[in-house]
């Protein structure tokens, strides 16, 4: 174990016996292939709809328009690329040649005298959605880093779209490298954009290696040291990775930061981690809690079947008749009352995030943070905080 990892674990974990850090089997050997952020969350549905409208409007002149833009975007052309030109071409892009044309137009547009731009259209998220639609992960990353595009892609939602595109293409190391660039830019005074942090932890979880857990634990301590409270999904990715890498103590310390311990992923990780360190009495208590929390008409609290199987293996190893009898009783009760899901913990951790984030670009923002009220609040009323990311995503 490296010195970095030892330091990270020392700051995360309470003093427990080191001999309990036995290598745990992976949560699942099958990688989940569903999207992490749903298309609507990234604005891709809206992009597709707008693209359809632009295609209809430009149908009769599309060919001539492309020819004109190809001429205008050449280096020796004195013609300018206007906001409306670039916007139309982004939405019209159908082929690789069209995407390359958009890249050339964007370079020229960004190099033109900024004093001549009077519109407030923000291109970063829209162009990144175009890259996403055409699955151009490498080109998107290249443009993001290129100095010719300085300022174009500096929006928090653009960071999220780019990192999600890299995630869907399995470019996990590139996510970590790109996040270092994002941290350095500190857009809007934000060094750790919440949705980007989720994707960084997701990348570490997918990598599932000694190096990735070292990075994740070091990054976790960096976040906590800066007073940053990660979203619940980032927390469960980090804890799930620690559990996969045989560090149940670290997993328990990480999930202790979640304010509400009743979420299904938290409950499963905690029960599995406690079983790994031999605290089966505490596991039984957690199992019993889902029964006491049952409410008529509400969805039953569940455990993942693979988690219960892992716990059962630990119960058999312990050879404690009392614990075994109680576990068997609860397992039968869970089967009868629908407290077991066949979805694996890995699948649950990697399920789609549906809730729309707060869009950080001014154009195309259909998700209002809150409704302004003309009424003056009553004395003593405290307006809730609507800062992005305060409410965790499941």
Automatic annotation (TrEMBL):
Residues 357-394 are annotated as: Disordered. It comes from the Eukaryota. Residues 360-371 have a biased composition (Low complexity). GO terms for cellular component: mitochondrion. GO terms for biological process: mitochondrion organization; regulation of mRNA processing. This is Pentatricopeptide repeat-containing protein 2, mitochondrial-like Protein. It comes from Tribolium castaneum.
